Amino acid sequence: MADQSRIRNFCIIAHIDHGKSTLADRLLERTGLLSERAHQEQVLDSMELERERGITIKASAVRLTYRARDGQDYELNLIDTPGHVDFSYEVSRSLAACEGALLVVDAVQGVEAQTVANATLAAAANLEIIPVINKIDLGSANPDRAAQEIEDMVALPADDALRISAKEGIGTQEVLEAVVGRIPPPGGDREAPLRALIFDSHFDPYRGVIAYVRVREGALEPGMRILLMSSGTSFEVSEVGVFELGLKPVPRLEAGDVGYVCASMKNVQDTRVGDTITGAERPAAEPLPGYRPVKPMVFCGFYPSESDDYPALKEALEKLQLNDAALSFEAETSQALGFGFRCGFLGLLHMDIVQERLEREFQLNLVATAPSVVYRVTTTKGEVTDMDNPARLPEEQFIRSIEEPYVLATVMAPAEHVGPCLELAQERRGVYRNLEYSHTNRVVITYELPLAEILLDFFDNLKSRTRGYASFDYEFIGYRLGDLVKLNVLINHDPVDALCFITHRSRAQARARQLVERLRAVLPRQMFAVHIQAALGSRIIAAEKLQALRKDVTAKCYGGDITRKRKLLEKQKAGKKRMKQVGRMEIPQEAFMSVLRVEEMR
Amino acid sequence: MAQAAPAPGPGPGAGLYLHIPFCWRKCPYCDFVSVPLAGQDAAGYLQALEAEMALRAPEAPTLASVYVGGGTPTVLPGGMLPGVLAAVRQHFRLAPEAEVTVEANPGTISRRGLEALRKAGANRLSLGVQSFQDATLRTLGRVHNAAAGLAAAAAARQAGFANLSLDLIFGTPGEGEQEWRRTLEAALGLRPEHISAYGLSYEPGTPFHAACGRGELQPAGEELEVRLYQAAGELLEAAGYRHYEISNYALPGRESRHNLNYWRGGDYLGLGMAAHSYLGGIRWGNVTTLAEYRARLAAGAPPVRMAERLSCERRREEMLMTGLRLAEGVALDRLPCGLEQDLAEVYGKRIDELAQAGLLERPAGSIRLSPRGQLVADHVIRVLTGAGGLA
After folding, report:
1. Is residue B179 part of a domain?
2. Same topology for domains A195-279 and A376-482, yes or no?
3. On the CB side of B251, how many CA atoms lie within 13 Å of its CA?
4. What is the pLDDT of residues B248-297, one digit of tens each?
5. What CATH topology corresponds to A376-482?
6. What is the rounded CA–CA span in Å between residue B61 and residue B98?
7. CB distance B389–A563 less than 8 Å?
8. % of chain A at pLDDT higher than 90
9. In angstroms, what separates the C-alpha of A310 from chain B's closest C-alpha?
């Protein structure tokens, strides 16, 4: 492998849509790995879903060979990082595999919440951060302002920030030169006992798990026995290699290198992101710092629309888990929905992605219950339990206290929108922490917020109250006591466990009212009247009635109407895929989500 | 609905529909493809229509019915409409007793014009009187009043139309059951062979739909609509009319053969802008603008906007959708491709549930809507085809 002085390991970090993937493509093209013509948009985002959403979900890496202006060839390992707050731990591990980072900032939008969050992570990992101001070709670009914001809000000198347009290919070479010139080469003793950081992995049906690693010390080669330090499992290495556009085997990976390891590892649970690989014969004394097991933050129930699909759902979840260590699931039974699974996710995006993949790749029709955080419940007997399903919360008289997870939320917005941002945080039971103005008339607001309050519609609300100008990021900070109660929902006097939810006592009445109104709007009318009630314990605090269907018939149905009517029928059939029959009612997916979407009623 | 109506079976034979997309002005509830006649080149359109006839005639079957609809075909300047019928006879083979219907609106017809239509082969007239209440006609934005409706019916009889149908609308805002009964009685006074009674619907894109959304129009409401629907059944059936389709009533033997063919899933050819066809298992629809329609035909190309070959399943759903509108119902063994075993089970279960709920009846080998089921026909069809809802 190359001399350490000719290696650079770096990543690109940015707020969503600031041009991270486009810049990566330019670097690939410029170093000849990718011809401009053959390239599919944004190569590093390989999953179809990733491309559609424009968000990187999995980290991935690629090795570029670049002949710099000094005439030397350099080996540049570009590690892509996930672009969403759900995956911030994965981001931190990707950063830990690098010596430097390109911080891409949109010249029109300026610094946003994710810019700050990512830069903070990069600084914590002691990376050399190179500010890159992108999209300077746009008419509304203001690179000076972006530079000022980088100094004000990221606290990085931005005099020498690169000014580029990844889309137009302006400044690509300067970026590569900066990577070579400003990012330090990796160090690490090649003779020391092996320590390699796992920063990602993927499951290959033929070879098992392929772990993506950064070798810190020592060397890795086929035939060697390795030990995963946190799980304590041991494997024999069958292949090591580097990332080009595919996987390219090499004889050996050494300290400073980025590459992959195959060792017949059967599941991603064995190769946790952040774990350290060492040699079984000559193990290192200490693992690399920073490992923590991933913990799902958000839970929901997945139920097949047709109960016959239960085994297929189980199989599909098992398959997804092969490739997604953060996904957890266990069987659960709901009185209303029958057999399903309680699934745990890193966040809502993660949940959305899993649901979409189950539907798309496995053709399952699912109903998802409203996502819930994990409540920590102390019973009157002094037992402490983590409760990931509101339906299983004990009756009030058996509860001594309930704690809920809190996050530290960072909101960035133009100063004129500060009022609505504070208002929203306040409405969501936020605890004010800080407010800071930049020289460019933007504010950074920090609040402590219950995680439950930002599920689903917080960001949408924030955007609509700031005409789209606010950005948002958060991190988990711990559990806090809360005056929380469980609201039960009854349909035709039967409690529907899958609709119950936990809310703050002060908001119970208002949310109960909004919820029954919303349910009345989304539940399909039946041949009989439907009573919708919300109750605190046994006390009904809000009720609505959905009138029985009396007349529902198309007046005219002739030649052209037939096609139209049949298409409507087909549309309704497709909509029915996300419905679940509960007693004498069909409950659409929307109903389960109304538990959290009550805000939209306003 | 009367159960003794025409024998269940395939359509009476292929039909031909001709679309004349012109009106004096557009009614605020109408969502048909039509434009005001003023400033339009009607002759140019008819030329294109005849070009389409020539294009389609070679593959067309013998026609059991012809229906000229719109729009208001009778707004065409004198002589043009008989010309269209003459062209039909020139290009197509008509069965000896073929039913030839022309749609007309009061205020657009004279006795002489009607006689010319008779002479050109029209033997059935469908009159859009809608109501015999002046206030209702004004709300509906019609160009005529009640007296004009009566006069039009009289003129049709004088011109020799022995098969007359009246279109009526119920549930117009501001109208109660009493006014609707008066309209029905006035209609019965004319003893038409056929009456269509449509509940007013608020179709997206119409001024009525918008006004309803803004709260400026107050729809009748389900309870009143049910009473009005039932009043029509009661009065018309007592007068000897058979309720043979959800919105249609006829004296025995005077059912619209052309429309029966739609509901029974028969073949039909639709010509003109926005017209739809179903022939030999293929459904197609024509382009929906005048300019495009004419341009395509001027270039000798079929003016088709969309076409699809219907799968068995879709065909079956359509047959249920349209066939259940008929009093005779749907013969299960006549459904396209039959019902495979597993499907028969699925449908069988749904049919049982709907029958138990009192929405479907099951005379030997077929299904039909119960009187209660008629009021919620769309719901029944959704349940039956698995598109949603519970019996």
Report:
1. yes
2. no
3. 12
4. 999 999 999 999 999 999 999 999 999 999 998 899 999 999 999 999 99
5. Alpha-Beta Plaits (3.30.70)
6. 13
7. no
8. 52
9. 20
A–B CB contacts, 8 A cutoff, strictly below: 109
Q: Is residue B45 part of a domain?
A: yes
Report the CATH number at residue B161: 3.80.30.20
Residue A574, min C-alpha distance to chain B (Å): 8
Q: Which of A557, A562, A572 sits opposite B387 (nearest CB)?
A: A572
Pick the CATH number of A195-279 from 3.10.310.30, 2.40.30.10, 3.40.1360.10, 2.40.50.90: 2.40.30.10
Domain spanning A4-182: which CATH class is it, in words? alpha beta
Residue of B nearest to A576 (CA): B388
| B294 lies in some domain | no
User: Does the beta-carbon distance from A557 to B379 stay under 8 Å?
Assistant: no
Residues in chain B with pLDDT values less than 50: 2-10
ipTM: 0.89
According to DSSP, residue A85 is labeled G
Closest CA to A264 of A205, A311, A316, A218: A205
Tell me: domain A485-601, CATH 3.30.70.2570, correct? yes
CB contact under 8 A, B321 and A569: yes
The total number of structural domains that make up chain B: 2
Query: What is the DSSP secondary-structure string of A343-410?
Result: EEESSHHHHHHHHHHHHHHS---EEEPPPEE-EEEEETTS-EEEE--GGGPPPGGGEEEEEEEEEEEE
Q: How far is A362 from chain B (nearest CA, A)?
A: 22
Shortest Cα–Cα distance, A516 to chain B (Å): 20
In a domain, B9, yes or no: no
What CATH number should be reported for the domain whose range is A298-368? 3.30.70.870
Report the gap between the CA of B278 and the closest CA in chain A (Å).
Answer: 8
Q: Measured between beta carbons, which residues in chain A are less than 8 angstroms from residue B228? A: none
Peptide bond before B389: cis, by omega within 30 degrees of 0? no
Q: Which residue of A has its CA nearest to B323?
A: A557
Question: Any idea what the Cα angle at residue A572 is, between residues A569 and A578, rounded to 5°?
Answer: 150
Residues on chain B touching A583 (C-beta within 8 angstroms):
none
Show the domain range for B238: 15-263
Closest Cβ opposite residue A576 in set B200, B277, B388 = B388
* Cα within 13 Å of Cα(A339), Cβ side: 10
Q: Count CB neighbours of B381 within 10 A.
A: 26
Domain end among B263, B289, B320: B263
Within 8 A of A491 by CB-CB distance, chain B residues are none
- DSSP letter for A170, please: B
Residue A2: band (very low, low, confident or very high) from pLDDT cuts 50, 70, 90? confident
Using an 8 Å CB-CB cutoff, list chain A residues near B322.
557, 562
